[in-house]
Amino acid sequence: MAEINVMETIPEKMIIPLKQHKGDICEPLVSKGEVVKVGQKIGECPSDKCAAIHSSVCGEVVSVEESSHPSGNRINSVVIQPIEETECEDFTPFKDSGKEQLISAIKEAGIVENYGTPTHLVLNPPDCDIDTVLINATASEWVGHNYETPLEYASQMLDSLRLLMKAAGASRGVIVLRNDDKDSIDAFDGLDYEGKTIMVSPLIGKRRVDYYFNDQNTDIIVVSQDKIYGKNIFEYFTYNVTGRKVPFRCTPASAGVAICGVKSTKAIHDLVNTGMPYIETVVTVSGQVNNPQHLLVKIGTTFRDVIEACGGYSGEPAKLISNGVITGVAQYEEEVPVTKMTTSIIVQGKDEVLKDISKECIHCARCVDVCPVDLIPNRIAALANQGRFDECKQMHVENCIECGRCSSVCPSKIHIMQLLQYSKEAIAKAYEDMFEKESSNLKLGCACGSE
Amino acid sequence: MTLTISAPPHIKQDTTFRKITWIKFLTLLPVSLVSVYFFGLYALALILAGIGMAVVTEVVIQKAFKKEVTVANGHAPLIGLMVALLVPGEAPIWIPIVGAFFAVAIGKHAFGDIGSYIFNPVLAAWVFLQLAYWSAMYPVSFPELGGISDLFLENGAGMLVGVSPIALVGGLYLIFKRYVEWKIPLFYALTTLVLALLIGDKIGHVVTGAFIFGVLFLATDSPSSPVTKNGRIIYGILCGLLTVIYGHFANYVFAVFYGIFLANCVASFIDNNTLPRSFGEESFLQRKYRLMMNKIPLEKLGVKIDD
To answer: Across the interface, do B3 and A352 touch by the CB < 8 Å criterion?
Structure first.
């Protein structure tokens, strides 16, 4: 059980990118020389596929310019020089509001899922009905999110789930925990909520949520399953939990499912109870730093300041990674800001940096044994390398959840995950071209919410 | 400060092909030592001749074709050692030399180097030697497991590999560390033993050094065996079936090598026909089972069904 520390020091410079989500870039509302307050809106959405950006500190805008972003690109950002005193916008909590107000409030507060989609699009996708809301708590424990006790975590999560269901207009809600996460399971198990006792039920075999909804005769259940990680887990996650198949290139919304993370759930809870927009997030710092810890930081703090707050590097750093060692992005420089999508910062030393050269595949089948979705990664990688994407499609490459296990066990050090991603992108592009040419009676697309 | 940029994943297992082959090489050293003890220093000469010729052939071929010389990954020495182990203790010294040359030049490089060959180079060389130099390759005696002491030192051994079945159990360490795969050895050994029992062959004839070597080292050679999960089970069963068919009518030592060699032929065929389905789709058996169960009116019979 780790504690959350709050980053107290005020950095010299904050970089707040105007795009911290997947979708359209925000338009800046401030210009050089203006003074901004905590929680002041500095980025306005030009369209619906967007989440607003707020200032996380009080200070003077130094410039609005292109600056580096943890994704590796350069994004138009607002650079702020913070000042000592903190002046806040007036946050007003709101209660007893309807679906529309809730959705627009979530959009205005700029709440974004940790995988990048703005939460209001997840809960209220265009032309789509959501009937089940899932909270994916398999990846992060309650300790990671600023809750004081497990009990508080459990009851707040259930309250937030009610809010999410109201916002999405869904009739059923599920919280998905991880099998080996004893703290969370103990917190939920036996809890009385709305006159009913919550029981954590494992997802085994064909017993999916439908079975437990019938069995427990309730509209909110808590289930547990093995940890699923990866960049693109939603099709598999949706199937595992609800038994519904999501068509290729569609979001889970087309199966009537909305998937939220623990972070955005907490942010919505804060928004409703205090009115605070999404301006701070918990980042796990690990690796070659003096004090590895969970740190509550303001969005826009640079990695350098975060690492300094953790006691600085212990040794010569050679690689700086945002968001996990398996799927994360290695950074060019330290001057990159923490965004709404940042969950962890990892520093690797010189001897940890891999310098492998890809060799021939020896068909050892290690990748086949570790693949969670039953693919034949070595064969698909070979086909993708030769550009035979139609054959990749026949071998269900679209099921790949991009977890990187295959690349990590490969004794020949082949970049299997990248080759699979490459073929998926090529197939998706081929589908894009097909839409216009096909006759209208042939239905290829999603019911709603394509990526 | 310089930061490195690279594609994820940023941590990988430290298992490499080089490590796997050298550990295989090391696990074969005990049996080599016992064979030297058993057949005298001449066995050492056979082994060194095999390894030396394999290395020389690999270097010459890779130099000639202007490829990177990959002797250091240990595959050529491993092939040389394995070929030498499959040779009778009294064979002329040129037998392992010709065998190692054939294994590396034809078995491995002519088929396109590591990962592309369809026949295990060691077995290809053994079959070649067996057909071409029959009299030199025929062992003086075939081993039979009489008692526990035969597990440690087999007095009837004809080939170098047959001298001590127990010295080969290093192969289990390979399975434990997942350097080789476990499904093929398990199903191969089970099928062979069960079938041999059923048709009444003496188990003492089946469990020899050659059989254990075949199960743990030859059948698990990764490029010449299937990769799909079900495919590996089928391959193991097929190896066992072919071994028993040959062994029942001839002898179980040759049966192991011919059985695996023939099973190599169909490895890719098995692979292509056992590709897994997408998750959430029923397999052939599941669909049949569901259709069958749908026809039975369980609810009328008073059975309560979950889900």
So the answer is: no
Q: Which of A238, A241, A239 is nearest to A222 (CA)?
A: A241
- DSSP result, chain B: ------PSPS------HHHHHHHHHHHHHHHHHHHHHHH-HHHHHHHHHHHHHHHHHHHHHHHHTTPPP-GGGSHHHHHHHHHHHTSBTT--THHHHHHHHIIIIIIIIITTSTTT-SS-HHHHHHHHHHHHSHHHHS-S------SHHHHH--TT--BGGGG-GGGGTHHHHHHHTTSS-SHHHHHHHHHHHHHHHHTT--HHHHSSHHHHHIIIIITT-GGGS--SHHHHHHHHHHHHHHHHHHHHHS-HHHHHHHHHHHHHHTHHHHHHH-PPPPTTSPPHHHHHHHHHHHHS-TTTTT-----
State which of A148-162, A255-269, B209-223 shows the largest mean pLDDT: B209-223
Domain extent, residue A124, equals 99-274
**Residue A164: helix, strand or coil by DSSP?**
helix
**Is the same domain home to A222 and A327?**
no
Domain termination site, one of A317, A349, A381: A349
Which of these three, A211, A241, A274, is where a domain ends?
Answer: A274
Q: Please indicate, yes or no, if residue A355 is contained in any of the structural domains.
A: no
ipTM higher than the 0.90 cut? no
Q: Is the dihedral of CA A396, A402, A403, A409 positive or negative?
A: positive
Q: Are residues A149 and A211 in the same domain?
A: yes
Q: Is residue A356 part of a domain?
A: no
pLDDT confidence band for A446 (50 / 70 / 90): low
Q: Is B268 within 8 Å of B224 (Cβ atoms)?
A: no
Chain A hits for B233, Cβ within 8 Å: none
Answer whether residue A139 is part of any domain: yes
| Structure-token match 């693949």, residue found | A371
**Do A270 and A418 share a domain, yes or no?**
no
Q: Do A316 and B222 touch (CB under 8 A)?
A: no
- DSSP letter for each residue of A208-272: -HHHHHHHHTSSEEEEEE----SSS-HHHHHHHHH-PPPPTTB-GGGGTEEEEEHHHHHHHHHHH
Tally of CB atoms within 10 A around A303: 23
CB B219 within 8 A of CB B236: yes
Residue A437 pLDDT level (bands cut at 50, 70, 90): very low
The string of pLDDT tens digits covering residues A96-129 is: 678 888 888 888 888 888 788 888 888 888 878 8
Please tell me whether residues A156 and A236 are part of one structural domain: yes
Q: Are residues A344 and A306 in the same domain?
A: yes
CA atoms of B222 and B224, how far apart (whole Å): 6
Report CB contact under 8 Å: B9, A417.
yes
Are both A236 and A385 inside the same structural domain? no
DSSP A63: E
Rounded to whole angstroms, the Cα distance separating A222 from B120 reads 52
A vs B: CB pairs below 8 A = 138
Total of domains in chain A: 3
pLDDT: which is higher, A16 or B290: A16
Q: B residues 184-243 near A, CB within 8 Å? A: 222-223, 225-229, 232
Least confident of A204-208, A306-310, B213-217: A204-208
CB B44 within 8 A of CB B29: no
Question: Is there a binding annotation on residue A371?
Answer: yes
Q: Is residue A236 part of a domain?
A: yes
Which overall architecture, per CATH, does domain B17-273 show?
Answer: Orthogonal Bundle (1.10)
Does B177 touch chain A if contact means CB atoms closer than 8 Å? no
Q: What is the CATH number of the domain that holds A305?
A: 3.10.20.600
Pair (A160, A218) in one structural domain: yes
| Closest-CA residue of chain A to B112 | A360
Residues A372, A339 share a domain: no
Q: Tokens 């925990």 map to which residue? A: A177
